[in-house]
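Researcher: Before we compare anything, I want clean individual predictions. No alignment, no superposition, just each chain on its own. First chain goes here; please echo the sequence and then give the structure tokens.
Model: Echoing the first chain and its structure:
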Amino acid sequence: MLAADVIVVGSGVAGCAAALAAARRGAEVALLAKHPDPAETNTRYAQGGIVYTGPGDSPEALVRDVLAAGDGDRAAAELLAQEGPPLVGRLLLEELGVPFDRDGEGGLDLALEGAHSVPRIVHCADATGEELQMALLRAAGAERRITLLPGLEALRLAIVDGRCTGVYAAAGGRVEALPGGCVVLATGGLAGLYGRTTNPPGATGDGYALALRAGVRVRDLHYVQFHPTAFWAPEGETFLISEAARGAGGVLRGPGGEEFIRHPAGSLAPRDVISGEVIEMMSRTGSPCAYLDMTHLPEELLRERFPGAYERCLCAGVDMAREPVPVSPAAHYSCGGIATDLSGRSSLPGLFAAGEVASTGLHGANRLASTSLLEGLLFGWRAGEAAAEEARSLPSTGAPPVPSIPLPEPAPGWAREELGRLLWEHAGPVRTVTSLGEGLRRLWELGEELGETALGGPLLVAEALMRQALSDRRSRGCHRLLDLEEVRP
């Protein structure tokens, strides 16, 4: 199989950015995509937009907003604010020509989203992720130093003398070794494991499982962000109603039509606050959902700004121009991940990580809206550059030996559904110590039964999530404990 200087696992915004950056530093790059369609990533489903900059904005203002939302790492926030928007301008606007929406005068249409102090979000209607994904894949496909390998699933990291030297991947019904000087994991998050989620089915925490099996440091997996406005129906598909809908003037209401968000920012409060208040309202009133009211907004605006959500709501029997949209929280984003420095280096030499699978500390306990694509772009780029530089200095080690790694057997159909139910009930938007403990015991039982199947990796990740939730003695951000008094030191 192909050898490369840098192996990038994952073809979303972070993976494509890492591959492009490494190739432009002279590295030969193998870009692996688990799905046969390399565009089938979490990035593809991102709706709202990507953070840029606008009139009255500044890096300092963006840093304040990021830290106010999640109380994360200041150095990571400052780096994102200083280097992120200029990279959007150079790469996405100038070089790749991503068709961001324009205002009536031809300038960028800058949207306001929850917990942002100024309008600074550039977007392509409500399909920003799709446009970014395709533009970045086209750029990667045009780069002669990048070899795209779709339909290749990484099963284990190859480690020789304490250093990551490649990956073992499932290819054509067998396991093969793919050697590389450095590996960049950009595999996305774990929210797809939850029974109620905005993520596609492939978001199953693959990169976390690779890291955990190799003893790589992983932190804050329990800070799972629950998006407050996912479409709700008694039976039917869950899908995201973008944060930008509230930025455009949408208001959350209770079953009687009342506004119930107590935060001073109202429906534009941070996601963890909104999700918590929606759950509290539902518990208080017995309502199965909240209602996102956009009926006071012009129908033309809704159709033009949110065409995807508008059509999906219509297909579900709801006309958002004429009736409130039923919504409730759903698992959306992993704020934690593989612990890295600001260039993507993990605790295992030779292994880098970027995007949702990584944790620079940027998001802290709660992610600010529309920072995910920017984080993936910037830190993917930085990880790709750093990996290329490191790989250049290494002697050639040849292919790692192929161990006896069997292809995992498929898990029974009920098992994935059971895991999703366990996570939602025991590690969902509101948690208790007792419930987390019960969930962890049930995960152990599932692990004994199914640990050697294809569900083994997701079970390992879910167990780490619950363990970290039990060890965190704070009710903070995405991690909301009802019985906080039981866990105070």
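Researcher: Okay. Second chain, same rules.
Model: Second chain and its structure:
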Amino acid sequence: MTNILKGLKPQSVLNYFEQISQIPRGSGNEKAISDFLCNFAKKLNLEYIQDENLNVIIKKQASKGYENCPGVILQGHMDMVCEKNKSSNHDFLKDPIKLRVDGDMIYATDTTLGADDGIAVAYVMAILADNTIKHPALEVLLTTDEEAGMTGAMNLDTNQLSGKYLINLDSEEEGYILVGCAGGNRNCISLPLEFTTSDKQGMLIEVKGLLGGHSGSEIDKNHANSNKLMGRILNLLNIEYDLVSVNGGLKQNAIPRECDAIIAINHDDLDKFNANISEIQKIFNHEYKASDPNIKIEVSKASYDRVLTDSCKDKVIKILNLIPNGIQTMCADISGLVESSTNIGVVKTKDNVMLFESATRSSVATRKDDINNKIKLLAQCFEAGYEETDSYPEWERATDSKLEQISIDVYKKLTGKEPKILTIHAGLECGLFLKKMQGCEAISIGPNAYDVHTPNEHISISSIENTWKYLLSLLENLNQY
């Protein structure tokens, strides 16, 4: 291990964060990190459970004087979103995350950092290893596959848990106490492809330089979506061309930053094509000068084996342009809160099919259903397949929550400030647990993290320490209520 974070505070938390950063743990690849956490518990002589979905529960008895307090579940997820810059050769299946420190911030090098939600794993490891920390009976719950579909949480047997208070550690803004979130699902249009031949010049069109971001927490920033921009490019070209392929984005829940398409044009149209691209570049620069000032459209020659039929090409262009994307509705009763949205995060050309994969979110279930139905109708219009997966419920704010009031009181005593109580548009696992665990109350907290789900993801060291102090104070003060 490189000890990049050595000497930084809180040392125990950052030491564990650096340790888990050495372990590849993308969604669907959690066996190594799950086993690591079990071995960690075993070394501390703590009771642990590893289920068939690789979720891990670690239990620690209450500190002296806390035996009669309600039990606490500390919860986060062990998987991370695997995004990287196109120029990076990082292999998320075997390479450690390369950490770097810039002032108060921790970054990775050309990849996502994994602080979402590696910082939760680090926090709970530090608590479990330190017998001087005062706390009620603890059940640490670390789930798998949160980023790809929350299947770990969906399949968890909550009868293995007895805690009354659930503290989720998957939030990204210090000073906020989250008490509700949107529900969501994934959906996919699969368009069958038909091919023909062409003797035209192959050209690669690349859209790059976008900021991207988390498709829940950052959907309100109006960042450009590279897949939607490519749809516009293909629709705006006023030359005759054949379409070979479109590929953009890596994750449904990340606003895509890059997209490329290969087309075939007549040799005589090259100058006109370049002029087209220049005009479209000006349009994008004007529209996104505030939210994505570095948008670039680059073109170069490319080779290909076959092209889509005109009918298929027409369907691809129409789906890319017509598929819903971005904010759909805003909450009427909470100013500034997104109520429903959808993100066309991935477009893939695979053998004889093109896939259009979206993540849909809403705090109102019927709004989510409405968006799904629109995407399904779009698929039917073009004789394409449609699939809906990984549905998870919204988390509705509880009335008269004792845990919420305790968390507010402790924050005010510790900082002298009022915390902000918030429901968010991003999805958290709390809704799934609360549906299964009658009488359980939940909040979500976390340190300041930025540009999550992108290679620019970074997290504030001072905020990690502030949130650590708050978490310890919250645990310590639970015997006063």
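Researcher: What stands out in the second chain?
Model: The longest helix spans residues 270-287. Additionally, The two ends are 42 Å apart (CA to CA).
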